[in-house]
Amino acid sequence: MDTEGLGEVAVHYVVMLMILFLALMALNAVIESPSFWLELAIVFVVAFSYRPIVLGLGMAPSRWEQQ
Residue 21's closest CA among 37, 36, 35, 42? Predict the structure, then answer.
């Protein structure tokens, strides 16, 4: 098992979760009680846009660049 590669990818998933929580906290600061669907939309936007953005910036782990 490639533990070094898993560790490299795990860091990116932790960063993505931190960005997600920050985005949801900012949303809650702007809109006092956002709907579930709006929060779910934010989750999908962050989850599906993180990897292409990181790849485009050239900061992606080597495992993502191989696929």
Answer: 42
- Maximum CA extent, the chain: 46
What residue spans define the domains of the chain?
3-66
| C-alpha span between 33 and 10 (Å, rounded) | 32
Distance (Å, whole) CA 60 – CA 26: 26
Between CA 17 and CA 60, with CA 12 as vertex, the angle to 5 degrees is 140
What is this structure's pTM? 0.80
Per-residue pLDDT tens digits for 21-55: 999 999 999 998 899 999 999 999 999 999 999 99
